[in-house]
């Protein structure tokens, strides 16, 4: 069997189209223009690309984009002061502080300083707790929501009873992914670096979400035939000349011989992450303005 390739780029473009339509309506009928502030500390080249893409797509969707680039040696106090300004700015409905942050800054402290109503990353403990409680008002992290939207499409919106294996237990992807799948009535297993016999666990899974950051770790012979594989990994390997090559956490060529469907890297989960960020921003803006959203 050769797997269907899940086209995240196309799904993201379709979602952004819906978002742009909703933004146009909000601007017209409610005089509300959702605004997203992105904060980048330092010069990491990979982060710069994401920040640029986010900024461009925000504007293309008709939203306001504020980008703040801070020096690599920015102090935690300075960053917290900027977050406080953004919390107080009524034109800013969503705040994203790009992670990782330099070592002099305590990430958790910064995340906790963001107004939970503007926390479009869904990383604030209040939003993480709301998600764990099954509260539909939770702002949920963008990467796992993007994965879930792709999965729903594969399963015609019915994931109930599927055995889902989430590989990785980060607060950013693994844990919220597991919460979302549980909400859909999947039977969820979370695996991590200390899990025993991961290949055997994987062979039982109808759905595999790989989010470990280890290039090609999930092998073709770990998969149950027909499984749906979502590859969250974005690993930069040296490619031809000085160009980096992006690879996922799944050994793609092997996996596509066994899986039923699989996301490519690039062009899978990544574009959906950004589209979901825009969506969270629109939802957050509507709540802040006490206006009904057709997206939420
Ligand atoms: N506070 C915070 N929130 C994040 O959501 C966040 C973050 N920090 N730090 C970095 C990671 C990474 N991330 C990506 C988003 C989109 C692509 C994406 O669009 N990737 C394209 C390829 C882009 C390329 O060519 O580099 C793709 O997979 O097709 C990748 C990575 C969001 N992150
Ligand atoms: Mg992990």
List keywords for this structure.
one-carbon metabolism; Rossmann fold; 10 helices; alpha/beta; 16% strand; 296 residues; purine biosynthesis; multifunctional enzyme; binds 5,10-Methenyltetrahydrofolate; binds magnesium ion; EC 3.5.4.9; 11 strands
Describe the protein's architecture and organization.
By secondary structure, the chain is of the alpha/beta class. The protein has two domains: 31-120 and 270-296, 3-Layer(aba) Sandwich (Rossmann fold); 142-265, NAD(P)-binding Rossmann-like Domain (Rossmann fold). It has ten helices and eleven strands. It has helices at 8-29, 45-60, 76-88, 107-113, 125-132, 142-154, 174-183, 198-202, 252-255, 269-288; strands at 4-5, 35-41, 64-70, 94-97, 163-167, 187-191, 207-210, 228-231, 235-238, 244-247, 261-262. Strands 1-11-8-7-5-6 form a six-stranded parallel sheet. Helix 1 packs parallel to helix 10 and helix 6 crosses helix 10. 43% of the residues are buried. Bound molecules: 5,10-Methenyltetrahydrofolate and magnesium ion. 5,10-Methenyltetrahydrofolate binds next to helix 2, strand 4 and helix 10.
Helical content class: 25-40%
Number of helices: 10
Task: Quote the distance from N terminus to C terminus.
Answer: 37 Å
What's the level 1 CATH class of the largest domain? Alpha Beta
Biggest sheet, open or closed, and with what strands and sense? 6 strands, parallel
Tally of strands: 11
In which order are the strands of the major sheet placed? 1-11-8-7-5-6
The CATH superfamily label of the largest domain reads: NAD(P)-binding Rossmann-like Domain
Shape: globular
Uncertain stretches of 5 or more adjacent residues: none
């Amino acid at each position: 069997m050769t797997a269907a390739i899940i086209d995240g780029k196309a799904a993201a473009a379709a979602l952004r189209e819906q978002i742009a339509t909703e933004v146009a309506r909000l601007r017209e009928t409610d005089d509300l223009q959702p605004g997203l502030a992105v904060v980048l500390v330092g010069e990491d080249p990979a982060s710069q690309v994401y920040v640029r893409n986010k900024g461009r797509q925000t504007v293309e969707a008709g939203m306001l984009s504020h980008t703040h680039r801070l020096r690599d040696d920015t102090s935690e106090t300075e960053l917290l002061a900027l977050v406080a300004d953004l919390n107080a700015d009524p034109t800013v409905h969503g705040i994203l502080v790009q992670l990782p942050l330099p070592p002099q800054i305590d990430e958790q402290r910064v995340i906790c300083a963001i107004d939970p109503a503007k926390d479009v990353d869904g990383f604030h403990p209040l939003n993480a707790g709301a998600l764990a409680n099954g509260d539909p008002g939770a702002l949920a992290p963008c990467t796992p929501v993007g994965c879930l939207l792709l999965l729903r499409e594969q399963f015609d919106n019915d994931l109930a009873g599927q055995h889902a294996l989430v590989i990785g237990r980060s607060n950013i992807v693994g844990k919220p992914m597991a919460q979302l799948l549980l909400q859909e009535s999947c039977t969820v297993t979370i695996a991590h670096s200390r899990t025993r016999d991961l290949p055997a666990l994987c062979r039982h899974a109808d759905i595999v979400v790989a989010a470990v950051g280890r290039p090609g770790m999930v092998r073709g012979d770990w998969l149950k035939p027909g499984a749906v594989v979502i590859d969250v990994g974005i690993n930069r390997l040296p490619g031809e000349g000085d160009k980096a090559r992006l690879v996922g956490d799944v050994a793609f060529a092997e996996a596509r011989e066994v899986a039923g469907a699989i996301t490519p890297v690039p062009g899978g989960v990544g574009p959906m992450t950004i589209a979901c960020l825009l969506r969270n921003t629109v939802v957050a803006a509507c709540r802040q303005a006490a206006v009904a959203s057709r997206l939420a």
